[in-house]
Amino acid sequence: MTQQVRTTSPETGDRSVAELVSDLSEQMSRLVRDEMRLATAELQRKGKRAGLGAGLAGAAGVTAFLGGATLVACVVLALALVMPAWLAALIVGVALLVVAGLMAAVARVQLKRATPPLPREAMDGVQRDVQVMKENVRS
């Protein structure tokens, strides 16, 4: 039994294939535009949340810095009870600079290990693989 393809239906009426393709194209364009608007709105909402989160994180960092500075002042004032205030401040300042120097030295070593930002192990592995392939081709 041969099956015939209907070119008309209750939804399409007597519309041609070209008209149906045109409608499909228009509907796809509208769908893509609507999806893009939806994605833009979602990204804007997420961007606002990320901005708020970043602002709060920055404020927390500043507050933590101020808390640390207050604790340093507390140490200076406590030492000032047993020695002159200038000496207490000098000792605390030198101790902080020593700690900062040690942290900078460790940071420098870590940064040297991270540069250049190339996947050395992967590159070495690829070079080994190429060498093995060359040897197998020669055999």
User: Helix share of residues?
Assistant: over 70%
N-to-C SSE string, H for helix and E for strand: HHH
Specify the oligomeric state: single chain
Average pLDDT figure: 86
Shape: flat
- Give the low-pLDDT segments: none
> Number of folding domains?
2
The major sheet is characterized as:
none
Number of strands: 0
Indicate the structural class. mainly alpha
CA radius of gyration: 35 Å
Pfam family, one: Phage_holin_3_6
Keywords: Membrane, Transmembrane, Transmembrane helix
InterPro entries: Phage_holin_3_6 (IPR009937)
Transmembrane segments: 52-79, 85-107
Task: Characterise the protein shown here.
With 139 residues, the protein is an all-alpha fold. The chain folds into two domains: 15-82; 84-139. It has helices spanning 17-80, 85-114, 120-138.
SSE map:
Layout: H1 17-80, H2 85-114, H3 120-138
Helix pairs in contact: 1-2
